[in-house]
Amino acid sequence: MPRGFHLGQGTVIRFQGADRCRVFNNLCTQDLRKLSDGQAMETFVTDVKGRTFGHGVAISVDGECFLITVPDQGAKLVPHYDRYIIREDAIVADVSERFQFWLFEDRAVAAKAFAIEIDATPAKSCVTSTSLGANRIALVHASWIGPESILALVPAGQGSEVIAERLGSEWSLSDMSQRNAWELARIGALWPWYGVDMDDRHLPQELDRDTAAISFNKGCYLGQETIARLDMLGKVQKKLVKLSIDALLSPAVQAIVHADGKEVGTICSVAANEALGKCLALAYIKRSHFAAGQVLEVNGSKATVC
User: pTM score > 0.85 for this model?
Assistant: First the structure.
């Protein structure tokens, strides 16, 4: 698999003004009051019912705050934030068209792409910002394809040829819609894709990313009551899990997962691992069967919860 991917345009929401962090924080599951310049945090954006209105990486870099997420979310997220700005000094804007996304397997590949040195940093830190010609580039820790993967925000129309030349055969032209060259890695990293693996019908805890994306100690935020109540109860009725399926032919999205002839879940994302002759999938599985090691069945093939 290539180690770098030119993805094209995702969604970048910019928060400006003296109250930018407070406004950003008020609709997120992470405690973004702790987001200092040069840091990044995975977070859910919630609605009044505590459901997942968005999901991505929050960063503070060069004095501004941004939410980085999947394509075509600006028209939904900007009005959602604007609705709750009353007297705060904050401006929320969709600046997605200004950037192209590059995704790298780890710091070493990102360093090669931009011809810089990147020191090891804590996993939740924004790795660095650097220059590409006259432009600033943000290199962000984002676990899209693994625990060390790096997402680069490159000004649109700038630097792609230089990056591609430096990486040689290690990069691939991919996209943010089909994710054709890196979907297997994304599923393997258990990174859910908004609009595919979740939407505003789901609760954050159903994505099983509590440690990475939810603070249970922060103050009041939109939808907190629902999330806190679910945390106190200590259970969800279904959860997104990774399945290893003993078949090379990928089951269809929305294929039913069974256990002992009974329906226990539904496939959301799937990709074939030709080297192993198996498939990896993300699926919502009922509480009775989502523990690691559970053996299930999809289209007559064995499927094991990883």
Answer: yes
Pairing of strands 150-155, 171-173: unpaired
Average pLDDT score, the chain:
92
300 in Cβ contact with 294 (< 8 Å): no
268, 253 contact by CB (below 8 A) = yes
Q: Are 99 and 12 in contact, with CB atoms under 8 Å apart?
A: yes
Q: What is the pLDDT of residues 28-37, one digit of tens each?
A: 999 998 888 8
Pairwise CA distance, residues 306 & 302, whole Å = 12
Domains and CATH numbers, the chain: 4-186 (3.30.1360.120), 237-306 (2.40.30.110)
Q: How crowded is residue 203: how many other Cβ atoms within 10 Å of its Cβ?
A: 20
Report the distance separating Cα 167 and Cα 159, nearest Å. Answer: 12
| pLDDT tens digits along 62-121 | 788 999 999 999 999 999 999 999 999 999 999 999 999 999 999 899 989 988 877 766
pLDDT digits (tens, 9 = 90+) for 186-204: 999 999 999 999 999 999 9
Residue 44 contacts residue 194 (beta carbons within 8 Å)? no
Contact 40, 208 (CB under 8 A): no
DSSP 132-184: ETTEEEEEEE-TTSSTT-EEEEEETTSSHHHHHHHHGGGEEE--SSS-TTTHH
Q: Report how far residue 179's alpha carbon sits from residue 198's, in angstroms, rounded to the nearest whole number.
A: 17
pLDDT in tens, 262-297: 999 999 999 999 889 999 999 999 999 999 999 999
- In three-state secondary structure terms, 286 is strand
**Which one, of 13, 1, 40, 34, lies nearest residue 194 by Cα?**
13
Residues 6+ apart with CB under 8 A from 251: 245, 267, 270, 279, 281, 298, 299, 301
